[in-house]
Design a protein that fits this description.
Blueprint: H1 40-46, E1 51-57, E2 60-67, E3 74-78, H2 92-95, E4 100-104, H3 120-133, E5 144-148, H4 150-162, E6 168-172, H5 198-202, H6 216-224, E7 227-230, E8 233-236, H7 251-256, E9 262-267, H8 275-285, E10 291-294, H9 301-304, H10 306-320
Parallel strand pairs: 3-4, 3-5, 5-6, 6-9, 9-10
Antiparallel strand pairs: 1-2, 2-4, 7-8
Helix pairs in contact: 3-4
Length: about 325
């Protein structure tokens, strides 16, 4: 990260791998606050507006979005580090045709409240609380969680702790590295800068890890929803203190302890999750657990190949649909 750039972080940095050739760091700068052109499917997806809901978890108000029929099987979508529920807003409507879909804002991110301290177990409890509040444990089939990047780590823990209540987990480009390897490390944040205008803030937005993003309309969409109005202008929504004294924990042990069905998705060109990491995760699980590669995608799969991600998730869910019995908390 260039220290001159205040930005929002949506992934983790892998210090064990050599740096990739760097794409343009500030792809939205040239639009000067205007929205990039977008295809019809994107506008049609956003026209399916969600409900905005909240649930209190350990004294903090957790915001989430909900689409679809609450009487259907539940599907929780979980974002990455320093991201937010709107990363799923153009994916969820496709899944809501058959599911009760919710997308969480984890505490300290999006429109949820902030905490004094953050833990993996606390984030996992937020996932369970949102599923419960959204009615996902009140129907015949147990809910499924689809989670990207840092959200994937939280969901691996949830699968180890609470998997008996879940119909399955889909882990999207959240690498669990072999022993001796250095896994992704979160980069500490400085206090947020305040920008005088939305355009000035958007001009500074970039992805971490850095990668090319051809779908600038999607990058602009998630960037706008990463910002909030503050005194003097605009600033990022996420709490820059999240990674203070924070530990991800032993993800290999947690993955191996998964108590429900699991599938793994990875981007073909992911800087964080190359093919060898996918193979290690498959071998660690020691059972039928598909590792599906999304072609021509980097780490931020929903930005690179959103419709391919929809198709892959639909295919996995269809395969699981008839094998999950009713469970309650």
């Amino acid at each position: 990260m260039n220290a001159d750039h205040d930005r929002t972080e949506t992934g983790l940095v892998n210090p064990a791998r050599p740096p990739e050739p760097q794409p343009p760091l500030l792809p939205l700068k040239s639009f000067v606050g205007e929205k990039p052109p977008a295809p019809a499917w994107f506008a049609e997806a956003l026209a399916v507006e969600p409900q905005h809901r909240h649930v209190n978890v350990d004294g903090v108000r957790i915001h989430y979005l909900q689409w679809g029929d609450a009487a259907r099987r539940g599907l929780l979508l979980v974002h990455g580090n320093a991201a937010h529920a709107m990363w799923w807003s153009f994916i969820a409507p496709y899944l809501a045709r058959n599911y009760n879909v919710a997308a969480i804002d984890l505490s300290g991110m999006g429109d949820s409240g902030w905490r004094e301290t953050y833990t993996m177990h606390g984030f996992a409890a937020e996932e369970l609380a949102v599923m419960n509040d959204a009615g996902m444990f009140s129907v015949r089939k147990a809910p499924i969680v689809v989670a990207h990047s840092f959200g994937g780590y939280i969901t691996i823990l949830a699968g180890a702790l609470y998997g008996r209540y879940l119909g399955g987990t889909v882990i999207v480009d959240a690498p669990v590295v072999p022993p001796g390897g250095r896994g992704p490390q979160a980069q500490p944040h400085k206090p947020h800068r305040v920008y005088p205008t939305m355009a000035a803030a958007l001009a500074r937005y970039r992805l971490v890890p850095a990668q090319k993003c051809d779908n600038l309309f999607l990058l602009d969409h998630v960037a706008r929803h990463s910002l909030k109005a503050v005194e003097g202008g605009f600033s990022w929504k996420f709490d820059p203190r999240i990674w203070r004294d924070f530990s991800i924990g032993d993800m290999s042990a947690r993955l191996k302890a998964t108590q429900c069905r699991i599938a793994i998705l990875r981007g073909e060109h992911s800087a964080l999750m190359p093919a060898d990491v996918g193979r290690y995760m498959f071998e660690l699980l020691g059972r039928a657990a598909p590792v599906v590669e999304i072609p021509d995608a980097g780490h931020h799969i929903m930005l690179d190949q959103p419709l391919a991600l929809v198709a892959a998730v639909r295919a996995l869910l269809a395969d699981w649909e008839h094998s999950v019995s009713r469970r309650k908390i």
